[in-house]
Amino acid sequence: MSKVFDDMDRLAAARFPIPETETSKARVLSAEELEKLFNHGATEALSPIEPLHNNRETFASGAVRNKVDYRYDLMSPMVADLLLADSLHMTTPRQELALYLLGKNEHSPAVISEYLADVVGTNRPTLAHLYAQALHEGASKYGERNWEKGLPKSNLINHALHHLFKLVEGDTSENHASHLVWNVMTIIHFREVNARAKEDTV
């Protein structure tokens, strides 16, 4: 099975080379370093997050994102339960999705996809379209395949919950549905990649 994934990776690299840009100067991280970045954010071994310019930051992997000024990922379990139970009319799919993002429950990617479709009021084919919209926007802002270099889970969680809450509030200042879908699917992507990498080393 690992040979299949290796072949897919080589094919993807050949078809979709990552262009050299200011944000791709960082060295390519190993699978172990990418997992460390995803699970623990920036550490001494990976160097701290460095500012790129006023509203963006670059990570040790070379990936770039807009800065956030909130840390949902640091909420205590008690406070998370209290706030998510009744706030913002959190229906069960919304609660389950939020708790999954905070690491308070475990669901398969298929179940999370169903919750996500319910939250944004659509079906899986439309989820794919929303995901592709966010990929297009990200490629335009940061360069193609920027995110594949690796992002901390905490960063993805904060962006995802921000867009979830804004979507529930009815905010239309940006496409919160597509951004929510992208962040959740990217968390799933890195969790699955990390799990497969561990299986290959056993």
Key terms:
202 residues, mainly alpha
Write up what this structure looks like:
This protein is mainly α and 202 residues long. The chain has one domain. Helices cover 58% and strands 5% of the residues. It has helices at 2-15, 31-40, 77-86, 92-101, 109-120, 124-142, 153-169, 176-201, and strands at 50-53, 56-58, 64-66. It has a three-stranded antiparallel sheet, with no helix packed on it. A hairpin with a 2-residue loop joins strand 1 (50-53) and strand 2 (56-58). Mean pLDDT is 76; it is low at 1-26 and 42-53.
Quick summary:
By secondary structure, the chain is mainly alpha-helical.
Tally of domains:
1
Q: Please list the strands of the largest sheet in the order they lie side by side.
A: 1-2-3
Shape: globular
Major sheet description: 3 strands, antiparallel
Indicate the radius of gyration in whole angstroms.
Answer: 17 Å
Note the beta-strand portion.
under 5%
Low-confidence parts? 1-26, 42-53
